[in-house]
Every structure is written in structure tokens, then in C-alpha cells.
Design brief:
The structure holds 2 protein chains of 2 kinds.
Chain A: E1 13-16, E2 19-22, E3 45-50, E4 66-67, E5 85-92, H1 105-111, H2 132-140, E6 149-152, E7 161-163, E8 166-167, H3 168-171, E9 175-176, E10 182-183, H4 189-197, H5 205-213, H6 218-221, H7 223-231, H8 235-260, H9 279-295, E11 301-305, H10 324-328, H11 334-360, E12 362-363, E13 366-367, E14 372-377, E15 393-396, E16 407-416, H12 417-427
Parallel strand pairs in A: 3-11, 3-14, 5-16, 6-11
Antiparallel strand pairs in A: 1-2, 4-16, 5-15, 7-8, 9-10, 12-13, 14-15
Chain B: E1 11-17, H1 23-37, E2 41-48, H2 53-74, E3 84-85, H3 96-102, E4 124-125, H4 126-135, E5 142-147, H5 151-157, H6 162-169, E6 170-176, H7 184-193, E7 198-200, H8 203-208, H9 213-218, H10 227-235, H11 245-254, E8 260-262, E9 266-270, E10 276-280, E11 285-290, H12 295-306, H13 325-328
Parallel strand pairs in B: 1-2, 1-5, 2-3, 3-4, 5-6, 6-7, 7-11
Antiparallel strand pairs in B: 8-11, 9-10
Helix pairs in contact in B: 1-2, 1-10, 1-11, 1-12, 2-3, 3-10, 4-5, 5-7
The chains are: A alpha/beta, B alpha/beta.
């Protein structure tokens, strides 16, 4: 058989009037035979803080149904926040289960956590689902400088196999812009700082206005070339090109927003240098900046992957040199169980520090925490058993006065965690009928 | 995607019934677990179509009786499944058969048949349970059995993507329609939208093969306490013969050869009197039919399976090493607390 179609050169550019855009790798570049909010009110924010490897024991996590009183061991650092908490029971992510796909609970549970689906088992052609934070970001993000922020604390690969055939993209990202586009978290506090506040160079309003006059979308300059290229691409490549150009446009919009914003934000902190060696310091730096971003309404949507799902990070800061993941498979060894309990509590302690700041940040008669929905949760329930029902799920904040907090609510078994996402999306002003595995909305959260 | 190299397990059965109204559905569940014990199928979901904790409790009593509480603690497949319960069709009535089983006490005043369904959140979101059960089945290796109103299955059809999922995973629906006046809209929806063939076990079929009271006194006598026998005795004044449409539905679902035949294809609709009317022609609805020559075999199979002894299953997880000091020292152990790793015998009154 003779192949006559020429492969697209790897170094293909979309060209226009003085503009050239490099395009991402596409199938067509492979050799032909290669394998195939309400005005006047404080905005409502949502954030998801994800901890890996589940928790060690639900007995150390759960509280009795009803008003929350004394906290169990893993939640002790949250003492004082009982009144801000909704402790939710029996929420399930069915897509995290094997469902005939064999091993890979870590990849599945994180890759589909915020989309409520089961990711495709692959290390190459990844496919998950758009996550609920991105659905909200698409709807309300145009009103803020950043549609959403994705942050994390642990470096990780974005490609390759990280869990029994599941791509590292699944274990190392929480937020997904589309089925195939994860949103890698920003790990370096300096990078987050510069993204939020620029390089630190404060331009005069005149200088910024001068810059704006020359601003026009680069995509506009290459329209003709884009159309020609699209006619030569297969459906997969066409989708990839669309997504790529959309992401360029999103970045442009963010830049425009930053430049059009007359009030430059004073972060009130020194620019950080690199990634701190200390976990707690790293956590604090990132959450300090998220707090500023919430305060200044730079964004209303945040995902925070505390560490990669399935991580084997050690915690020498608290005297634990074993890896987190191996410890969770404790074989009922009391010493290992104790260490996992310490790691779980250590995470909660850092998180409590952030809640303090949010609660201390006043907004009129209220505070940022009250005007937020901050979910602290995991995609695995028990890290040893790898089960996906009764996921550890806490929600903090009243969502702008909508939720009656201070309670433990146990839902019916198998209640999809997607039902919680639907409820949160409603609160963010994004009404969709179904999402992920949803079978309805969560009852009993609202004040009325 | 399905794991390469993994052999298909026995047929998965999703069983939905308005448990508690008639002994037929209770016997059907017994037959189902009898077939499960013979490894001819796996019970992958049990759900009840009325809003009644007693009904859900009954489903769990039967499941525990055949599976034991051990497997539930260890999360073995098909065991310890949460019972899905409808929150429509609210029913506060405790029928005699439910009361006979759920209220039966030992001389010490403890329940003879334990179950864990005391409040609403001990049951499961019925639509999620059914949908999730489909997602975990190999293609065309699952069948749905419905006894009674169609409330739950019609609800599941309302979830996005579920019709395609059912078509992919499920061979057929076998239905013993009963009490359709409870939710006629659901029956209509099911008949109009269910994406696989529907095999209907009519009340007439159920009346043609009657489960004899004598079998309850003989075949079930191997156990001093038996929830199916207790339910049977309480359902109607003894002795009586119970109709078996739901039992026939289960039997056909798992063993389509050798017991019943099928009518030609046709279309079933709901009459104004809320009964099923079937007409031959275009459609994928069939009626189950009984060859009189098979009647004795059918009856013998039903009674044998319904009264089959529970089959102990291997634990899927190793027993954990002893970490509890009380367990390490038997002298400190609480004799009232059952050892989760030890098989449990049915309680004797």
C-alpha cells in the first residue's frame, strides 16, 4: 500500500499579520503509518482541598449525627470551627471503583473526583471529565481576574503511568478544563505570587493604559491560517487545536483583565523565593495567597491538591520517615496506623490554620469563610481498603448565608458526591440538571 | 473498558420488589439466593420499591440469612450490599409477614433475625444503587428482575446515559407485574422506554404453579428458624398455596432454558384497570409461558432452591492480625461481642 498523504511538520505555525502561533503536537504530525453573584453582596467562593490516600480510620474521623460537639482525634485541630462545619457522611464516588478496570484506585479516585466520572484507564490518551470547579469558572470566571486557581504542594509528572496503568495526569491534577485537559496545579509559591501579583513591578495607570492600546487577540491575526489548517485535520486534531486556541484566548483574557484592573493588589507580603522545604510553611504560603486572592476577588474558584494522590511523601517534619502511601497499607500494624493518623491530623492542622485566616478576614458584618464553601475531602475513604463509599467530606462556610453549619449529616448510602457538587454549583449561580453521577441535590444543607 | 484476561463471573442479578406485600416476592428472593449459592448467578443489587424501613429490613434479613454477617463485614462482592429503598410509595403498614420476621424475638428478648436498617440513612439511594450495579457488570452479563410496581426502574431511566448503560450491560428485564395501581405512570414509562427485551411473568402464570404449604414444613425444617418459612406462615392463614409469578421471573432470569417458553414478540401496555395487556406484533415484550408437562419440574426446582441451605463463601480478605488487647487475651474478650471473622449461625429462639 502506498501512503501519499504528507504528515504535518512538527514545527507548524499559524501565521498572520506579524503574528505566528506554534501549535501543539497533533496526530497529523505523526508519520502516516505510526500507531494511531448578587450585586452589593460579598461574592460566594468555592474551594476544594484534596488530601491523598484516604484516612486511616473512620472511627477517628466521624462524629455523631446532629450538632457537632467534641471532635475525634483526626479533627482535633479544627476545635473551634465546629460551628462552621458540615460533616457529611455516606457520599460516594462510584467512578472511583474498579468497575471491571482492575487495580488503580488512586488514579481513578483523584482523576474523577471533581467530575464524578470514571477516568479512562490509560497512560497515554487520557480522558476524564470537566470538573465542577471549571464549570463554575466558565460561568462566573469572567467577572474576576482569574477564572480559577489550581494550586498544590507536591511536584509530579504529568505523563507516564502513576498507578496500575492510570496516567500521572489523573493522580497529579484535581481540576480538568475538559475531558482531555487537566489543569496542573501551581506548586511554587513564587510562581503563584507572580501569577497573582505580577513581577512586583508596579506600573502607573498611564503606563498600563499605554500597554492596553496595543492589545488585540493574537488569534485574530491568524484566522485565515487556522481555517486552512483545520480543513486538513481529523476530528481529534481539530478538537485539540480548538482547545489549544481557547486556552491561549483564556490567558489573553486573564492578561487583559489584569491590565484593565485599575486597583492593583497589594499582597501585603514579601515575594516568596522558591518552594519551602517545610511542608507547613509551604501550605501556609499558598493558602495565604489564596486568601488574598479571595479578599481582592481575584478569583472565586480554587482547587488545592495538597499532595499527589497515592503519594509516598514522607513527613520528617513530624518525625515520620516512611512514605505516606506504604503506611496506609498498614496490615493492621498499630505503629503504622499511628503514623497515618499523625499524617492525617497534620494535614488537618495546616488546613485549620487557613480557616482561621479566612474567618479573620472580615467582609462587612461577615467574613470570607462565611461567604465560602470550602470542601476538605479525599477520593478514597479508607486508605487501606481503597473503598469509595462514605468518603471523608467536610464543608466549611455558609456559602454566603445559605447553609446551616455546625452539623453532621449522614446521607443515604451510595449518595453520589456529585449531588454535593450540584448543590454547590447552584450556590455559585450555575444551575445544571445533572452532573457526573448525580441523582439529585443534597438535602438538608440549607437554612430554610 | 473491561480488564483483559478476567473471566466473566456468573450472571449478575438486580432484584427489585415491593417486598412485604405478598409471599411471592419473598420466595423469589429465596430462590435467587439459592441460585447464587449454586454459583449460577450473583445478586448484585437488592432494592425495594416502597418507602418502608420494614420492607428494606426484610431484604437485609434475607440477604444476611443466606450470606451471613461475616461477609458483610469484609465487604465481599455481592454480600453486605446496601439495600436501596424508594422514597416514593410511602407505606407505613407493616404486613403480617414483615411483622412475623422482624418482630420475632428470642426468649431473652433479642431479635431472632438481625438487620441494620433502623433509619432512612441505613438504606441506600435506590437510583444510585441500581445504576452503580449496572456499571460494574460485564457487557450483557446482567439481568434485572422486577416484582411489583415499576417505581424504581422508571426512576433510574430518568438518569442521564442510563438507557445506553442498561442496553450495554443488561440482557433483559424479567417482570412479575403486581399492584401497578400504586404507580401506573412508572409502569407506562417502563413499558415505553426500557431498552432491552421485557419478559413478563403474568399473574396467570403465577397461579398455574403454586408453592405448597407442605414444603414449608418439610423442606425448610433443616433450620430451627427460617425467615422465609416464618414469612410464609404469617402471610395468609395456613395451609395455603402461594402464587409464584415473581419466583418464575427469577427462575427464568437465571435459567432461561428448561422451565418456561416464550410467547412471540409483541407489545405490552397498561390497561385503564392497571393490568398488563399484551398484543403480538412489533415490539420486544414477551410473555413467559408454562408447558404443562414441565409443571412438576418447575415446582420441584422452586421448592428445592427456595429452601436451599446458605453456602459459606470464602472470605475475600485475610483476617487481620490481632491488635485489640482484649482479643489478644481471651480472658478480657467480651463474650457478647461477635467475632467478625467467625461464621455466624442463625440465631435460635
Amino acid at each position: 500500500m502506498m501512503i501519499t498523504r504528507k504528515a504535518l511538520p512538527r514545527r507548524t505555525f499559524l501565521r498572520g499579520l506579524g503574528a505566528a502561533i506554534a501549535i501543539p503536537a497533533m496526530d497529523a504530525m505523526a508519520p502516516a503509518m505510526a500507531s494511531s453573584q448578587l450585586p452589593g453582596k460579598a461574592p460566594v467562593r468555592m474551594a476544594f482541598v484534596y488530601v491523598p490516600n484516604g484516612i486511616v480510620d473512620h472511627k477517628l474521623w466521624n462524629v455523631p449525627e446532629g450538632p457537632i460537639g467534641a471532635l475525634p482525634r483526626l479533627l482535633k485541630p479544627l476545635d473551634g470551627f465546629q460551628g462552621d462545619m458540615l460533616h457529611l457522611g455516606n457520599l460516594t464516588h462510584n467512578g472511583g471503583r474498579a468497575l471491571l478496570d482492575g487495580a488503580g484506585d488512586h488514579g481513578r479516585c483523584c482523576g474523577g473526583y471533581l467530575s464524578g466520572i470514571q477516568p479512562r484507564k490509560t497512560a497515554v490518551d487520557i480522558k476524564a471529565g470537566i470538573s465542577c470547579d471549571q464549570i463554575v469558572a466558565n460561568k462566573v470566571g469572567s467577572t474576576t481576574r482569574f477564572a480559577s486557581l489550581e494550586v498544590g504542594l507536591e511536584d509530579g509528572r504529568q505523563a507516564g503511568d502513576c498507578d496500575s496503568g492510570y496516567s500521572c495526569a489523573y493522580t497529579n491534577n484535581l481540576s480538568w478544563r475538559s475531558e482531555t485537559q487537566p489543569m496542573p496545579p501551581i506548586l511554587n509559591p513564587r510562581a503563584l505570587f507572580e501569577r497573582l501579583f505580577g513581577t512586583g513591578q508596579i506600573l502607573s495607570p498611564e503606563a498600563r493604559e499605554r500597554q492596553g492600546k496595543f492589545r488585540r487577540s493574537i488569534i485574530d491575526f491568524v484566522t485565515e491560517d487556522t481555517r486552512k489548517l483545520q480543513s486538513n485535520l481529523g476530528p481529534t486534531d481539530r478538537r485539540k487545536l480548538d482547545e489549544y486556541l481557547s486556552s491561549i484566548r483564556a490567558i489573553e483574557k486573564q492578561l487583559e483583565k489584569a491590565e484593565n484592573d485599575n486597583a492593583q493588589i497589594n499582597p501585603g507580603m514579601e515575594k516568596p523565593y522558591g518552594i519551602p522545604a517545610d511542608f507547613a510553611e509551604h501550605f501556609k504560603l499558598m493558602t495565604d495567597m489564596i486568601t488574598v486572592a479571595f479578599q481582592s476577588d481575584m478569583t472565586r474558584v480554587v482547587t488545592f491538591l495538597v499532595t499527589r494522590e497515592g503519594t509516598s511523601r514522607s513527613y520528617r517534619e513530624i518525625g515520620i520517615s516512611d512514605g505516606h502511601h506504604p503506611l496506609t497499607h498498614h496490615m493492621f500494624n498499630p505503629a503504622s496506623i499511628e503514623k497515618v493518623a499523625q499524617i492525617n491530623t497534620y494535614h488537618v492542622k495546616q488546613f485549620a490554620g487557613w480557616l482561621e485566616k479566612l474567618k479573620a478576614s472580615k467582609e462587612g458584618d461577615s467574613n470570607i469563610l462565611d461567604n465560602s464553601m470550602i470542601v476538605y475531602g479525599a477520593g478514597l475513604a479508607d486508605g487501606n481498603r481503597h473503598n469509595h463509599e462514605d468518603l471523608p467530606t467536610l464543608m466549611f462556610g455558609k456559602g454566603g448565608g445559605a447553609f446551616k453549619t455546625g452539623r453532621r449529616i449522614v446521607y443515604r448510602k451510595e449518595t453520589p458526591i456529585s449531588n454535593m457538587y450540584l448543590t454547590m454549583m447552584d450556590r455559585m449561580g450555575v444551575n445544571v440538571e445533572h452532573f457526573g453521577e448525580s441523582t439529585g441535590r443534597l438535602d438538608g444543607l440549607n437554612l430554610s | 473498558m473491561q480488564a483483559i484476561g478476567a473471566a466473566k463471573p456468573p450472571l449478575g442479578v438486580i432484584f427489585d420488589a415491593d417486598l412485604g406485600n405478598a409471599i411471592d416476592a419473598v420466595l423469589a428472593m429465596a430462590v435467587l439466593y439459592g441460585l447464587d449459592g449454586k454459583n449460577e448467578c450473583r445478586v448484585v443489587a437488592t432494592t425495594v420499591s416502597k418507602h418502608s424501613l420494614s420492607s428494606a429490613g426484610m431484604a437485609e434479613v434475607i440477604a444476611r440469612f443466606y450470606a451471613g454477617t461475616v461477609s458483610a463485614d469484609f465487604g465481599a462482592v455481592g454480600r453486605g450490599l446496601p439495600v436501596g429503598m424508594s422514597i416514593a410509595n410511602k407505606s407505613t403498614d407493616e404486613t403480617p409477614l414483615l411483622k412475623a420476621v422482624l418482630n420475632r424475638k428470642t426468649p431473652e428478648g433479642n431479635p431472632v433475625y438481625n438487620h441494620g436498617i433502623l433509619q432512612l440513612n441505613d438504606t441506600a439511594d435506590v437510583h444510585a444503587v441500581i445504576r452503580n450495579a449496572y456499571t460494574s457488570q460485564h457487557d450483557q452479563n446482567c439481568i434485572t428482575v422486577l416484582a411489583g410496581p415499576a417505581t424504581n426502574l422508571a426512576g433510574v431511566l430518568g438518569l442521564p446515559g442510563v438507557k445506553d448503560l442498561i442496553k450495554q450491560k443488561c440482557k433483559a428485564l424479567v417482570w412479575a407485574p403486581d399492584r401497578l395501581s400504586v404507580d401506573p405512570a412508572a409502569a407506562q414509562k417502563l413499558l415505553a422506554e426500557w431498552p432491552t427485551p421485557i419478559y413478563i411473568a403474568t399473574p396467570e402464570l403465577g397461579a398455574a404453579v403454586k408453592f405448597p404449604a407442605s414444603a414449608v414444613e418439610t423442606n425448610f425444617a433443616w433450620s430451627e428458624v427460617h425467615p422465609i418459612a416464618d414469612a410464609y406462615r404469617a402471610a395468609q392463614p395456613m395451609p395455603y398455596e402461594a402464587t409464584t409469578a415473581a419466583v418464575a421471573a427469577v427462575l427464568y432470569a437465571v435459567k432461561p432454558e428448561g422451565f418456561f417458553t416464550l410467547s412471540p414478540a409483541g407489545a405490552a401496555t397498561l390497561s385503564p384497570k392497571n393490568t398488563i395487556v399484551w398484543k403480538a406484533g412489533a415490539g420486544q415484550h414477551h410473555l413467559l409461558q408454562l408447558d404443562p408437562a414441565n409443571k412438576a419440574t418447575v415446582l420441584e426446582t422452586m421448592t428445592t432452591l427456595a429452601s436451599a441451605k446458605p453456602v459459606p463463601r470464602a472470605q475475600r480478605r485475610r483476617r487481620p492480625p490481632v491488635v485489640d488487647p482484649a482479643k489478644a487475651d481471651p480472658a478480657k474478650a467480651d463474650p457478647a461481642k461477635p467475632d467478625p471473622a467467625k461464621p455466624v449461625e442463625p440465631t435460635k429462639p
